[in-house]
Amino acid sequence: MEPVTLETGRLVLRALAAADVDAVYEACQDEAIQFYTPVPVPYRRTDAEKLVGEKLPAQWADDRDYTLGAFRKDTGALVGTYCLTLVSRGVWELGYWAVREQRGRGYSVEAARALCDWGWATLDVHRIEWWAMVGNTGSRAVAERLGFTVEGTLRNRSIANDGKPHDWWVGGLLRP
C-alpha cells in the first residue's frame, strides 16, 4: 500500500521523509523512548536515516506495518510516530512514541485516534491491541483515553534495552 496522509484539527499525519531524519534522531535521544520502545541504544543518526529511508517504506510496501509521523499544523514540529502493525488476521497493534516537548497536550490521543479510525475504515480489523511496559504511564493514559480496555499484565513478557525482563500491560479496542 502507498502511504496515506491523515489530518486532524491540529495535526498532519504522513510518511516520514528525508527532511525528518534530524527530528527523529533528536527525539530518539530521549531516555524514555530508548527505555520503553525497541529503538537501538545508543540511537545514532544513521539509525534515523535507515528507519526513514529504508525500513518504514518497506513496511508500507509489505502491507504489514503502517507508520506515520504526526506533525503540528501550526509549527510543523514532529509530535511523534504512530503505527498499526499486523499481529494476526484481523488483529493489529497500535504503537507510538511522542517527542518529549510535545507530550501532555493531547496530540498522541488525536494522532492515534486518527490512525485507528483509518484502520477501522481501511484494513480488515476487528481488534486493535496496545502493549506497554509496566511503568509507561503516559502510554497507558493515551490508550485509556482512546477507549482501550486494559486486559491484564504479562509477567516478564520481554527483555528491554536494559537487558532485563519486564512486565507488560496489554489492552484491546474492539471495532466500534
UniProtKB/TrEMBL annotation:
Cross-referenced Gene3D superfamilies: 3.40.630.30
Name under which the protein is recorded: Ribosomal N-acetyltransferase YdaF
InterPro entries the UniProt entry points to: Acyl_CoA_acyltransferase, GNAT_dom, Ribosomal_N-acetyltransferase
Alphabetical UniProt keywords: Acyltransferase, Transferase
GO molecular function, one term: protein N-terminal-serine acetyltransferase activity
Catalytic activity, EC: 2.3.1.-
Annotated gene: ydaF_10
Domain of life: Bacteria
UniProt GO cellular component terms: cytoplasm
Listed PANTHER family: ACETYLTRANSFERASE, RIBOSOMAL-PROTEIN-SERINE ACETYLTRANSFERASE
